[in-house]
């Protein structure tokens, strides 16, 4: 949602609103390293033990991922 201190969105509508807002504000430039982001979100999700929330990580890229091997490994490990 653009707020690093409170990144939660409410429902699918909140996710879509955050996505549309990011399209207007995100500037794509490199290097693009996604593994740290995947791991950060996974740690946040792991902290919710009661299953009351779900986490969606939307990755927007210009097609160039600088740490592709690490990103793949992170996605496999956290899934």
From TrEMBL:
Q: Coiled-coil segments, which residues?
A: none
Q: Where is the Copine C-terminal domain?
A: 1-79
Q: Name one GO biological process term.
A: cellular response to calcium ion
Q: One MF term from GO for this chain?
A: calcium-dependent phospholipid binding
Q: Which domain of life is it from?
A: Eukaryota
Checking SUPFAM superfamilies in the record gives: vWA-like (SSF53300)
Can you supply one Gene Ontology CC term for this chain's record? Answer: plasma membrane
Q: Which organism is it from?
A: Cochlearius cochlearius
Instruction: State the name under which the record lists this protein.
Output: CPNE8 protein
**InterPro entries cross-referenced by the UniProt entry:** Copine (IPR045052), Copine_C (IPR010734), vWFA_dom_sf (IPR036465)
């Amino acid at each position: 949602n653009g707020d690093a201190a409170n990144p939660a969105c409410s429902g699918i509508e909140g996710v879509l609103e955050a996505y549309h807002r990011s399209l207007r504000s995100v500037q794509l430039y490199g290097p693009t390293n996604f593994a740290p982001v995947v791991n950060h979100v996974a740690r946040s999700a792991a902290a919710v033990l009661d299953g009351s929330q779900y986490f969606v990580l939307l990755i927007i890229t210009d097609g160039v991922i600088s740490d592709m091997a690490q990103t793949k490994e992170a996605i496999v490990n956290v899934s």
